[in-house]
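Before the break, one more example. Copy the sequence into your notebook; we will annotate it together after we see the structure.
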Amino acid sequence: MEEEKKTAPMPGRKPRILPGVEDEEIRKFVTDYEFPVQHFYKDSKGYMTIGIGQRVPTVEKAKEMPLYLFDGKIPLRPATGTEVESAYRQTESLPYGQEYKFSKFAPENNPGMPNVRLRPEDQDDILFRTLHRSGQELADKFPRLETY
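Here is what the structure looks like once it is written out:
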């Protein structure tokens, strides 16, 4: 049996996250549930998180992210590995739970914590890459996904 050929997307255009659904509709659904947060925080279950609900399981994963050292709300330069690790470890050491809002984890509320953050455009890029990867995993598991 001949393997089905996958068509390449048009140059400059990514395939849709899910067939038959506009990417922006999926983004809106996610951002209605997950509020964008530029700094590290612990979700209500204690998972280290950043951006638009992006779990960051290890310092090593955090160091792979496009994080910047900020002066207030202005990005100064890419954060060093030491700055990322310090912000991650300090956030990791804070208590968490339903009563703790993400602002509790903000660098400005934690003396000595480096002001390490994601830029808004990087938050969106990370979200779309994650959604595309998840959409591809679904398509791989359910070859007739577009007919559902």
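Residues 139 and 145 are 6 Å apart (CA to CA). Confidence is low (pLDDT under 50) at residues 1-11. Try to locate both features in your own notes.
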